[in-house]
């Protein structure tokens, strides 16, 4: 059994047994290839404190998975006796893998923030994040008509990777209602543990649209899309009382 485990996981020579999993080491290798590539196995081994043979096994697995590839431009890797050292870069598939890795780091960072400063520290972080969103997107929302402004918000969110759209809602209300639907959430895995991000996002929508909003569902909460009700009456700057409980 020990021999079989050794063939499946590469552990640094200076590490205690079980200190770092092969998967987490491969993620570290992938991250360095992304940030420093083209990079060789020898360079990675020196950075990570691993043996060159161990790093090459991780690189072979990543290459087989299609997340990295050998850089083909001549002159990048140092030339040694025999064949030149192979230098690696990340593929587009590898970039997708990295998003998940960054989510794990973000969750760990927010856990540390919560442990050090309490829940209020997480709320403050989420508020600052979406204050920045408001500042960045507000200049793009030039329409005064509420429906057009909502469409501009959806376009801006789509540009940032949220796959957003606005859909009319047939409802017997005095003010017409639309729903802002986000088919993708780049921070889904973080928001699953820290719903403060979703709450702050809803507040940002209220500020950007100048009206109250009602969050109906989130991807982080298990829905297939994030759905937010938007009344399409005359836009005006929302007060704290207009922003629904749960999104304040």
From TrEMBL:
Pfam families: HTH_20. It comes from the Bacteria. Residues 1-25 are annotated as: Disordered. Gene3D superfamilies: Winged helix-like DNA-binding domain superfamily/Winged helix DNA-binding domain. Transmembrane segments: none annotated. CDD domains: HTH_ARSR (cd00090). This is Transcriptional regulator. It comes from Xylanimonas cellulosilytica (strain DSM 15894 / JCM 12276 / CECT 5975 / KCTC 9989 / LMG 20990 / NBRC 107835 / XIL07). The lineage of its organism: Bacteria, Bacillati, Actinomycetota, Actinomycetes, Micrococcales.
